[in-house]
Design a protein that fits this description.
homohexamer; about 300 residues; Arginase, Chain A; 9 helices; globular; binds manganese (II) ion; metal-binding (chains A, B, C, D, E, F); metal ion binding (chains A, B, C, D, E, F)
């Protein structure tokens, strides 16, 4: 089933602004963790969405859902398969929207974008910093993905973090990595402008759905309490998209559960909302609302 | 089991202010969706409630739980069975409290109230506008129920909506339907007075439990993130009940799940709280709190 | 939804051989046990059945599904409501098919049949003997229902039992109650003729679904391993129906579970198969097969 | 993850006897049924298998797991994508092993095999006959797939059926379709030779996992009691493979569930066992055991 | 597995500031309620925690996890076993951290602390007042535990309550018990100083996890909507710990569920965070943040 | 809660023939596998058992349930804690009944028995041979436990196996280990005498509950289809106990699941049945039944 098939026919890759790319990658060999089932669950749930996302009709710009990336090989071959798909999207001015799968996969669309020699930064919305050098001996682990990205020389900014280790705290400090952690959002609300003025104009957005509060998103590997609620997440994404362009994005770490179809649906709705934000003209954000919010 | 049987004996219909009416209607013939199991799950969970709802003791005014409405026939015969039960409640000055079942059922208590020639309006608390003309070819669908009600010439007001389609947006505009959508509540809080001054004094309240945030109420057909939390919902209901009378109400769309007894319990607790708000003297609302709230 | 609504329209009570009577009785006040949800789950699942039950088309004889019996009062008032419904069925030559609900409910259809002054016996298919005098202080408990029936002077026969207490063993011996226990079925197979020659020609059949093996029917209050599998259950029911008439029946103790729709479906399929056996001409049983079976 | 990656590296397509082809096709647009998640769940569970299947080491003949077939288009485009993959397998003498997904998909590997102009028959192991002309208006429904195959002029044989409708009974009779239904297996055991002497020497095997008893395989769309247990299923497959060649196969209709990882594992183990049977030299079956079995 | 075994080795009792004491007590004999499984589930989930709790590294002060308390006897013998373990902790200046199990168990660590003749008060964070004299005939019920504690002459303070009965309201008034109920927190936020100036300097903290909102913590016996979210809970605990010492604590009433590992993890994370707050120097709280919060 | 507390009071260790020893050991550090929750789930479920096990009243010989063994240390310290408890039971002529927990724990009761210098053999009922030298680098893994036992020079016999690897097949052959594998039981039934004449008269019985068919026991780490059903398991255990004494036993690998309370109950019922078989006078077995069975 292609994304939002209840509302829009499958576009050709050429006619679609959005290339939905299912990436059922799950490194951990333990039995039954479940992120490999995430992309399909998002596609299934997208059937229940409306064409209208509350602000605009992003589907009218065309959606093409590719077949699932081959994840049967080793890490590097998985990444490389995804990289090919993303490169082809970037080269034709499309927005690749990768559905995970484990967070480790983000290295691939980022590498593909890096190869275009565009200037860009990566926004990570996540409960975890993912800045370790290795994790359980694996440098390709989901817990290391932002480290790998940062090592490519790409600026990163972290939002929603509420679980990190000493190594990650040190790396952050040493490398002056920008962040807006979850407790600060609780204590002070969302600032008028999240990103520093000199952060690149082009953004790649990686949204680890464990950024959501554990109450809203229990269907993930390591749910963390104290996270984002729905409107906060949208506010944050609109905020970073002010005067900037989101040129690629991924939604990762959904591990669907039987009684929690609400989680699969929420991931699908988030995907569509991010597509809307990515394609909105920069001036469309309701500025006066943002001001009010801050006063609160 | 009758409602709140742990605290109050079953009253006779004559001695009870509240007539609880189980309505296990589920149109969609797909296997296992589950709203038909909603009424029984609310009755079961009500056993865990206290007589005190946090403000008053509504059960002291008498609760009569009727047997379940016969939902074995076609839509119209289901509606008509419920209409009979509600009419009998209205005629003796009782408050019918229908437990759903699909949202489509609300047409029946509304028709019964309409037949009394009283002036009244309908408050809908829901994630969805339910204003379509038909849905999957069915004009009696839960997605059309507010359209059907509005077509009877009854004023309606919508609260908590966060998913609607173009047809519904247009219908709203064309017919000047009042609303307080979910994002506005997030951005601006609850206004001092929700309802317009000229909205009727008598209210029928239909509460689709998907109005709650998907984190609090995953046990429903189409849970939506970005919805109401508990105290917000109570605040809203107390707010609309200021200087007005709730003369009938329904709680619909619970689809109970095994591991989520919290949802069945929350629906039962909501039912009892709405009974308390419906029977409270108008002056009982803690006004100074409401003011404080708005300042926030 | 009425029983098997995908294949047959709702008949009028007069035109239907079968009166399906939902009886959502659940005495135990503990939170969430779930037999009260059984009848609705069977009705929902019946939508998936075929008109053909593998042998005949019982639905062609007419099915009328009544609304659910009012179970909001005390035990005796529940029983009495069901008794009225069954009496009306018997008086017009119909077969009442009660869907439970707790096993305790069987006293009602038996009392109604007893009131007709017909000679009949009761066949109980169950994992438990249900022959206690009282259970947790309650003589109306599901664990006492066969004792209550036997005390009315009605002959009973028990099949599939594999859990009983000393009191029940003694009662069985003292009153020469016939039985075919589960271990005997495992060790020796099903005998050519289960019932003693002098057992009454008219039968009331009560099928507690925990008679099935715990692997096939985990969705019940006290699942027991070592029970019946599907074809064994059908064989047994056809066997007792040889040269006898099943004039009323119930299927009790389903406590539906989210991931186990197989159990609700199996209960629905059993209900329909028992309707087929009840309405088959006595000679229809495939005799030669039964012989073969025994040789095995 | 590729099939059985804990024991064998991914082979190249050229070096692998088995081509595992994930086919996450799910036509029914209803929300959350789940067969689309089947292929991934089988691949995940295969990690727990041993290289030894109890009889042989089929993995030593090479396993290649392709990426998932693109199922985002309409029925015909899904089929056609799978057909291409199977044709390429057949042309190089490989055995395509398609993992479903809905049963409707079987038309594709059968068409691809038909195109080779080989003489072959199709063995269907299933609870349902799948012989309808259309189902809910759709001739490509899973309930019609064997009809579509038979209409191509290919001989079919059905095993394990226990739910069919009048139309299907008639079609069977009219077209002299061979079968060994579930009740016959219960009553008489497995015959020494299941297939008629003149059935083709080459077989395509389609195994709908609802052929298993509902106790063993509740994780499917329409589980049916009275089905096959594990060793019976293997016995049957070894029996049909006597003196014949299985040249292609599929395992369909797994709808994985959270608490029932046993079902995903059983489907994976079945897949591997069928690979073993398909690649065993015809004489390898333990003949004397089969004889003993029949005596029983 | 000992608490947080992924980060710290098991300390000896002498070297550990924290004595984790699993207490799988579950009085209610009903089948399958599940709090007896709580302690083990917290220990299992603690494996996923980091050494850093967001503020400090409490594990560096040493953690000793004792074996589970013997709960096979009657209530009093269970309490007495736990009392012994706690007394031994207090006597050596350690902080006992009891993992429940039912709330009734709190009487034991409180009694043990009382026996030290220290002056202290008890902070209860809970959805329920637990102030009944008896419940279902049992004075040791979880619904009576705070009454039993208060009757020992120990000052108590209640936070987060949103469900109580008339008897409890009266007891509160009569005995001038301090409280900060859940609705007040919603309406007014958290006050700068929660505890009255004259409340004892030493605190025993009992945290019934149903104090959390039902959305965040459905895995408990009686989840209640309208409760605390994560950061609110931490704010409250830091607030009460200002200028005071937490000398013992318990986390009770987790009833783990299969699909809700988020709840077990949240309980483990709370346990560790409370250990951090208990061992922080009083001046460590971020005062300026607290002020900001109140302005909000 | 102690074992079977609904029927028997806790005995003192001295007065009890059976010492129930909960052993919540779970080596694998992966999150949420669940065997650590097994012992408590068995104790909880035992509340539903009857005093009569279908043959005798084993509880009348006294049951003492000890507190859970401390499993917070490394493997060896866990084993050693259990060994102490078992030694104390053996020394006073009691039967230790250990509830697991992972299968690896069986080494401890066996070592304790070995230390008594009694002559005995070990019967393993399991789906897996557990004869590897190491597994994932760990010689104490559950997959190695029978190898470790056999290396002590203790005779072993394996029943129900249906999943093993080449290394295990070779070890079996080399060391002439006796077995009765699952497929042989399916094909030929249970032999009149399972154990070789020269197998020791004293037996230690270790029952891995994955020996049961996956349909009956999905709540375990690696459920395998093709296993034992209830009466087969009892038959086998009675068979081996003919003319021999079971002097100690364990039931391991239950990983309880929310919707599958049937599995916890089945494990509890098995425990009690094995206690009955262990304490029955050797002549009590129904010999004529066993003969009949074989004829079948
Ligand atoms: Mn991440
Ligand atoms: Mn994360
Ligand atoms: Mn609605
Ligand atoms: Mn809605
Ligand atoms: Mn029973
Ligand atoms: Mn019964
Ligand atoms: Mn099929
Ligand atoms: Mn089928
Ligand atoms: Mn409490
Ligand atoms: Mn509480
Ligand atoms: Mn084992
Ligand atoms: Mn095993």
């Amino acid at each position: 089933m292609h994304f939002l098939s209840s509302e829009f026919p499958q576009s050709s890759p050429e006619d679609a602004l959005f290339h939905i790319i299912p990436m059922p990658m799950e490194q951990t060999v333990s039995y039954g963790a479940g992120t490999a089932l995430g992309p399909q669950a998002i596609l299934d749930a997208s059937y229940q969405l409306e064409a209208y996302d509350g602000t605009s009709y992003p589907g009218e710009l065309g959606i093409y859902t590719s077949e699932a990336i081959d994840c049967s090989g080793d890490d590097e071959s998985c990444f490389s398969n995804l990289e090919v798909a993303c490169r082809s999207a970037y080269q034709t001015g499309k927005i690749p929207v990768t559905l995970g799968g484990e967070h480790s996969l983000s290295i691939a669309p980022v590498r593909a974008l890096h190869a275009t020699r565009q200037d860009f930064g990566v926004i990570q919305i996540d409960a975890h910093a993912d800045l370790r050098d290795t994790y359980e001996g694996n440098p390709n682990s989901h817990a290391c993905v932002m480290r790998r990205i940062h090592e490519l020389g790409i600026p990163i900014f972290q939002i929603g973090i509420r679980n990190l280790c000493k190594e990650e705290i040190n790396y952050r400090k040493q490398h002056h990595i920008g962040f807006l952690d979850a407790e600060a959002i609780y204590q002070n609300g969302i600032p008028i402008t999240i990103l520093p003025e000199d952060f690149p104009r082009n953004l790649y957005l990686t949204f680890d759905i464990d950024a959501f509060d554990a109450s809203l998103m229990p269907a993930t590997g390591t749910p963390e309490p104290g996270g984002l609620f729905w409107w906060q997440a949208l506010d944050i994404c609109r905020n970073i998209a002010q005067n900037r362009h989101i040129v690629g994005l991924d939604i990762v770490e959904l591990a669907p559960k039987q009684e929690l179809h609400s989680c699969s649906y929420t991931a699908a709705k988030l995907t569509y909302a991010l597509m809307g934000i990515s394609s909105a003209p920069p001036e469309s954000a309701p500025l006066q609302l943002i001001e009010k919010r801050f006063v609160k």
